[in-house]
Here is the input.
Amino acid sequence: DGGITQSPKYLFRKEGQNVTLSCEQNLNHDAMYWYRQDPGQGLRLIYYSQIVNDFQKGDIAEGYSVSREKKESFPLTVTSAQKNPTAFYLCASTGAGVNQPQHFGDGTRLSIL
Amino acid sequence: ILNVEQSPQSLHVQEGDSTNFTCSFPSSNFYALHWYRWETAKSPEALFVMTLNGDEKKKGRISATLNTKEGYSYLYIKGSQPEDSATYLCAVSLIKAAGNKLTFGGGTRVLVKP
Here is the structure.
Protein backbone atom coordinates (compact mmCIF):
# COMPACT_ATOMS: atom_id res chain seq x y z
CA ASP A 1 0.00 0.00 0.00
CA GLY A 2 1.19 3.52 -0.75
CA GLY A 3 1.70 5.77 2.19
CA ILE A 4 3.98 7.71 4.47
CA THR A 5 6.19 6.02 7.03
CA GLN A 6 7.61 7.88 9.98
CA SER A 7 10.17 6.40 12.33
CA PRO A 8 10.73 5.95 15.13
CA LYS A 9 7.34 6.18 16.80
CA TYR A 10 8.91 7.35 20.07
CA LEU A 11 12.24 9.12 20.47
CA PHE A 12 14.12 10.41 23.47
CA ARG A 13 16.71 13.14 23.36
CA LYS A 14 19.36 14.05 25.86
CA GLU A 15 20.30 17.65 26.48
CA GLY A 16 22.66 18.98 23.81
CA GLN A 17 21.97 16.14 21.41
CA ASN A 18 20.78 16.29 17.81
CA VAL A 19 18.20 13.73 16.73
CA THR A 20 16.83 12.91 13.30
CA LEU A 21 13.26 11.91 12.53
CA SER A 22 12.69 9.87 9.41
CA CYS A 23 9.90 10.39 6.86
CA GLU A 24 9.58 8.23 3.75
CA GLN A 25 6.77 8.21 1.19
CA ASN A 26 6.05 5.93 -1.75
CA LEU A 27 3.20 8.03 -3.16
CA ASN A 28 5.44 9.70 -5.75
CA HIS A 29 4.52 13.07 -4.25
CA ASP A 30 6.65 16.09 -4.97
CA ALA A 31 5.79 18.18 -1.91
CA MET A 32 6.54 17.15 1.66
CA TYR A 33 5.97 18.90 4.99
CA TRP A 34 6.94 18.70 8.65
CA TYR A 35 4.55 19.81 11.37
CA ARG A 36 4.81 20.06 15.11
CA GLN A 37 1.89 19.62 17.48
CA ASP A 38 1.86 20.79 21.09
CA PRO A 39 -0.97 20.06 23.54
CA GLY A 40 -4.00 22.24 22.86
CA GLN A 41 -2.51 23.71 19.70
CA GLY A 42 -2.97 23.12 16.01
CA LEU A 43 -0.33 21.75 13.69
CA ARG A 44 2.43 24.28 13.03
CA LEU A 45 4.59 24.11 9.91
CA ILE A 46 8.33 23.64 10.51
CA TYR A 47 9.73 23.11 7.00
CA TYR A 48 8.39 22.15 3.60
CA SER A 49 9.86 21.02 0.32
CA GLN A 50 8.25 21.31 -3.09
CA ILE A 51 10.92 19.46 -5.02
CA VAL A 52 14.11 17.49 -4.54
CA ASN A 53 17.09 19.54 -3.35
CA ASP A 54 14.88 22.46 -2.38
CA PHE A 55 13.13 23.34 0.88
CA GLN A 56 11.77 26.39 2.68
CA LYS A 57 11.28 27.42 6.28
CA GLY A 58 7.82 27.29 7.73
CA ASP A 59 6.50 29.26 10.68
CA ILE A 60 8.69 27.68 13.39
CA ALA A 61 11.93 26.59 11.69
CA GLU A 62 14.36 27.77 14.36
CA GLY A 63 16.28 24.88 15.90
CA TYR A 64 15.39 22.47 13.09
CA SER A 65 17.05 21.43 9.83
CA VAL A 66 15.96 19.27 6.89
CA SER A 67 17.30 17.78 3.69
CA ARG A 68 15.63 16.55 0.52
CA GLU A 69 18.16 14.50 -1.40
CA LYS A 70 15.58 12.02 -2.68
CA LYS A 71 11.98 12.51 -3.71
CA GLU A 72 10.72 9.89 -1.27
CA SER A 73 12.65 11.05 1.81
CA PHE A 74 12.44 14.21 3.93
CA PRO A 75 14.28 13.74 7.25
CA LEU A 76 13.97 16.32 10.03
CA THR A 77 16.82 17.00 12.45
CA VAL A 78 15.98 18.51 15.80
CA THR A 79 19.14 20.29 16.84
CA SER A 80 20.37 21.21 20.30
CA ALA A 81 19.39 24.80 19.45
CA GLN A 82 15.73 23.80 19.76
CA LYS A 83 15.17 24.53 23.43
CA ASN A 84 11.72 23.01 23.71
CA PRO A 85 11.73 19.95 21.45
CA THR A 86 9.20 17.86 23.37
CA ALA A 87 6.26 17.54 20.98
CA PHE A 88 4.50 15.31 18.48
CA TYR A 89 5.91 15.57 14.95
CA LEU A 90 3.91 14.80 11.81
CA CYS A 91 5.19 14.43 8.27
CA ALA A 92 2.91 14.93 5.27
CA SER A 93 3.05 14.93 1.50
CA THR A 94 0.85 16.11 -1.30
CA GLY A 95 0.53 15.31 -4.95
CA ALA A 96 0.84 17.60 -7.94
CA GLY A 97 -1.94 20.02 -8.74
CA VAL A 98 -3.70 22.69 -6.79
CA ASN A 99 -5.81 21.96 -3.76
CA GLN A 100 -4.65 18.43 -3.25
CA PRO A 101 -5.22 17.05 0.26
CA GLN A 102 -2.23 16.26 2.38
CA HIS A 103 -1.41 12.67 3.32
CA PHE A 104 0.05 12.16 6.78
CA GLY A 105 2.30 9.68 8.54
CA ASP A 106 1.57 8.28 11.98
CA GLY A 107 3.88 10.71 13.75
CA THR A 108 6.89 10.63 16.07
CA ARG A 109 6.68 11.62 19.72
CA LEU A 110 9.90 13.24 20.91
CA SER A 111 10.66 13.62 24.60
CA ILE A 112 13.57 15.02 26.57
CA LEU A 113 15.39 12.73 28.99
CA ILE B 1 0.25 35.20 10.33
CA LEU B 2 -3.03 33.64 9.20
CA ASN B 3 -5.28 32.84 12.17
CA VAL B 4 -7.60 29.84 11.83
CA GLU B 5 -9.92 29.19 14.76
CA GLN B 6 -12.10 26.19 15.51
CA SER B 7 -14.92 26.06 18.00
CA PRO B 8 -15.75 24.46 20.25
CA GLN B 9 -12.44 22.88 21.32
CA SER B 10 -14.31 19.75 22.35
CA LEU B 11 -17.82 18.43 22.50
CA HIS B 12 -19.63 15.35 23.74
CA VAL B 13 -22.45 13.94 21.63
CA GLN B 14 -24.92 11.23 22.42
CA GLU B 15 -24.97 8.38 19.94
CA GLY B 16 -27.60 9.05 17.31
CA ASP B 17 -27.59 12.81 17.79
CA SER B 18 -26.42 15.21 15.12
CA THR B 19 -23.84 17.90 15.74
CA ASN B 20 -21.89 20.62 14.01
CA PHE B 21 -18.88 22.80 14.68
CA THR B 22 -17.13 25.76 13.12
CA CYS B 23 -13.90 26.78 11.46
CA SER B 24 -13.31 30.56 11.13
CA PHE B 25 -10.66 32.26 9.03
CA PRO B 26 -9.89 35.67 7.51
CA SER B 27 -11.80 35.96 4.24
CA SER B 28 -9.20 38.05 2.42
CA ASN B 29 -6.91 36.13 0.04
CA PHE B 30 -8.69 32.87 0.79
CA TYR B 31 -7.83 30.03 -1.57
CA ALA B 32 -8.92 26.69 -0.12
CA LEU B 33 -10.19 25.05 3.05
CA HIS B 34 -9.38 21.49 4.08
CA TRP B 35 -11.10 19.30 6.67
CA TYR B 36 -9.29 16.33 8.22
CA ARG B 37 -10.38 13.66 10.69
CA TRP B 38 -7.76 12.50 13.18
CA GLU B 39 -8.57 9.40 15.18
CA THR B 40 -6.49 8.46 18.19
CA ALA B 41 -3.38 6.45 17.31
CA LYS B 42 -3.93 7.00 13.60
CA SER B 43 -2.80 9.58 11.07
CA PRO B 44 -5.01 12.49 10.00
CA GLU B 45 -7.25 11.59 7.07
CA ALA B 46 -8.52 14.07 4.51
CA LEU B 47 -12.30 14.57 4.43
CA PHE B 48 -12.86 17.51 2.10
CA VAL B 49 -11.10 20.23 0.15
CA MET B 50 -13.36 23.18 -0.58
CA THR B 51 -12.70 26.31 -2.58
CA LEU B 52 -15.91 27.97 -3.75
CA ASN B 53 -18.25 30.17 -1.74
CA GLY B 54 -21.43 28.22 -1.02
CA ASP B 55 -19.69 24.91 -1.66
CA GLU B 56 -21.18 21.88 0.08
CA LYS B 57 -19.51 18.49 0.30
CA LYS B 58 -20.73 15.21 1.73
CA LYS B 59 -19.11 11.92 2.69
CA GLY B 60 -21.48 9.44 4.27
CA ARG B 61 -22.98 11.08 7.36
CA ILE B 62 -20.46 13.93 7.36
CA SER B 63 -20.97 17.10 5.37
CA ALA B 64 -19.40 20.54 5.21
CA THR B 65 -20.34 23.98 3.97
CA LEU B 66 -18.18 26.96 3.10
CA ASN B 67 -18.78 30.70 3.28
CA THR B 68 -15.72 32.48 1.94
CA LYS B 69 -17.24 35.96 2.15
CA GLU B 70 -17.74 35.83 5.89
CA GLY B 71 -14.87 33.45 6.55
CA TYR B 72 -16.31 30.28 8.04
CA SER B 73 -17.01 26.64 7.38
CA TYR B 74 -19.32 24.26 9.23
CA LEU B 75 -18.79 20.52 9.57
CA TYR B 76 -21.91 18.48 10.29
CA ILE B 77 -22.16 14.94 11.59
CA LYS B 78 -25.60 13.40 11.19
CA GLY B 79 -26.66 10.59 13.53
CA SER B 80 -23.30 10.41 15.35
CA GLN B 81 -21.78 6.98 15.93
CA PRO B 82 -18.96 5.99 18.32
CA GLU B 83 -16.63 5.60 15.33
CA ASP B 84 -17.06 9.33 14.63
CA SER B 85 -15.09 10.06 17.80
CA ALA B 86 -11.99 11.92 16.62
CA THR B 87 -10.38 15.32 16.41
CA TYR B 88 -11.54 17.26 13.36
CA LEU B 89 -9.00 19.68 11.93
CA CYS B 90 -9.58 22.45 9.46
CA ALA B 91 -6.81 24.13 7.52
CA VAL B 92 -6.73 27.08 5.15
CA SER B 93 -4.45 28.04 2.29
CA LEU B 94 -4.15 31.52 0.84
CA ILE B 95 -3.88 32.74 -2.74
CA LYS B 96 -0.34 32.40 -4.01
CA ALA B 97 0.81 30.57 -0.90
CA ALA B 98 4.02 28.87 -1.87
CA GLY B 99 4.02 25.10 -1.74
CA ASN B 100 0.28 24.85 -1.02
CA LYS B 101 1.05 25.78 2.58
CA LEU B 102 -1.77 25.15 5.03
CA THR B 103 -2.49 26.90 8.32
CA PHE B 104 -4.31 24.64 10.75
CA GLY B 105 -6.84 25.45 13.43
CA GLY B 106 -6.56 23.91 16.88
CA GLY B 107 -9.13 21.21 16.15
CA THR B 108 -12.47 20.17 17.60
CA ARG B 109 -12.35 16.97 19.62
CA VAL B 110 -15.59 15.02 19.30
CA LEU B 111 -16.52 12.22 21.71
CA VAL B 112 -19.60 10.20 20.86
CA LYS B 113 -21.08 8.47 23.88
CA PRO B 114 -22.94 5.17 23.35
